[in-house]
Amino acid sequence: MKRTCPVIMKRTFSNDEFDKNGDSVSGAQLSDISKKSRSEPALPSRVVHLRNIEATELEVVQLGLPFGRVTNFLNLRKKSQAFLEFDSCDHAKTMVDYFNSGPAMLNGRQVFAQFSNHGELRTDPTNRSNQQAHIALTQATELYETAQKGGPNCVLRISIINMLFPVSIDVLHQIFTKFGSVLKIITFTKNDKFQALIQMKDHSGAQQAKLQLHGQNIYNGCCTLQIEYSKLYSLTVKYNNDKSRDYTNPTLPSGDSQQTQLQSNSEQMANMLDSRGLHSNTSLLSLNRSSSNDDYRYGANPLINAPPSFNPMQSQYGLGSAQMVSHLQQQQQLPPQQSVQNGPVILVSNLNEDMVTPEALFTLFGVYGDVHRVKILFNKKDSALIQFATPQQAAVAHQHLDHITMFGKQIKVSFSKHQFVQMPKEGGSDMGLTKDFTNSPLHRFKKPGSKNYNNIYPPGSVLHLSNIPTETNEEEIRRIFSQYGTIKRFKFFEKDRKMALIEMDSIEEAIAALINTHNYRLADSMHLRVSFSKTKL
């Protein structure tokens, strides 16, 4: 049921109308209004009463902005009290509940919030202090309305998908400084997804960063940037460490051992409010509460001097160099199976030796990287070595294909100690078990910044088909795919009939269909392109 505010008549207040507790009314103008008993808790109201607060008019207003639109306020500096009037009871309740859940500090003081006994504020416009307050309210409201639109503004919200390698604050800083000064960075994990809030110095820098970096990869084939404007317009950073950084204030502490076990609530609040569509200038708040959520650690401010090979703009922002992975391994302790020493070669075992071919392995593993060479072992034909263009691509394939079922057998994918696959000696023959695909036209990732990097998904029963000739109908496609399993559903894209989705009865059948139909000739100059889809039919 929607909360409704109690109907309370408008009242006129001046700076001397409040007693020590700040919520009683006195004076001749209000003598006909009865006081509420102090023993009775105030009913939910649009007006929030703040105690033990020492702040400017603008700070008072901005204190309420994370929770909703502030329509009026009073700042009683001499009494260290203030009143905030919201446009709805729900917004006021959100603020009171939040402040009651733990201590909130503003300018070194713990601020207390409760519902006021007054349902609405009416200030005297002729009062000079109220005129200044009106200006502050107008300025804060403009900021609120700008943030409510979700940009463009100076704060960007970054999500990283297909995150195979860790991404540090230093990496983000070096990427985004290409477009202007980066003032602050906050990183956090939400729904098992790494995210960051980045505050640029000006709107144009944020706009250019969003325009040019959205959809790009930090490393080849992985760590794709998804960028949108945040609904926050300023960030707070309490500590300089590996989870947050304020480049405008290098003197911030790194946080002691106890603090590193607590989540910085200014960042928790930024995450919560931004995701809920609320708005905040969190630079005014320092909230100290324990949390069972993500552990925010803060560290030293100086940037790490990256090696010359570290170039965030290389290959359309895809790094993919062994030196960069080595640098990350040193700084962030990558898991052993993702370190640079693994190299670009993987070992695939438990293959169905009666059905597997180098071409089949090239096609399936080529979904996750450019396969240069495939070698089925002569004395152990249920195993094969596959060499990728980069170690990162090999790691992506390992991540997605280990323990999948292929041709009736669950395969095992591991990293090989070899750095390349040896071709047969000149004049020798290994019965076609080794193939070189280095110059194959079927490589999916040969173009820097290819859109295929954004469409890497684990094997699933739904396949994405593209490059379909206009004259090819559903019946013909069904006939081709029915050779490899049962078709459950098929659907052409409404806006582009050159693409379609087809769902097989199982993931194993989808894998077999992909291997046998990718590059299938449908017309004289058109070959079918097949990949795994994230969409469900």
Automatic annotation (TrEMBL):
GO MF, one annotated term: RNA binding
Pfam families listed in its UniProt record: RRM_1, RRM_5, RRM_8
Please give the CDD domains that the UniProt record associates with this protein. RRM1_PTBP1_hnRNPL_like, RRM3_PTBP1_like, RRM4_PTBP1_like
Keyword Transit peptide appears in the UniProt entry: no
- Domain RRM, chain residue ranges per copy: 46-118, 156-232, 344-418, 461-535
Q: Which GO terms describe its biological process?
A: mRNA processing
Keywords on this record?
Phosphoprotein, Repeat, RNA-binding
Q: Which GO terms describe its cellular component?
A: nucleus
Q: Which domain of life is it from?
A: Eukaryota
Polar residues: compositionally biased ranges: 247-265
Query: Which intervals of the chain are annotated as region Disordered?
Result: 244-265
Secretion signal span: none
SMART domains on file: RRM (SM00360)
Q: Kindly give the PANTHER family that the UniProt entry links to this protein.
A: MATRIN 3/NUCLEAR PROTEIN 220-RELATED
Name the record gives this protein: RRM domain-containing protein
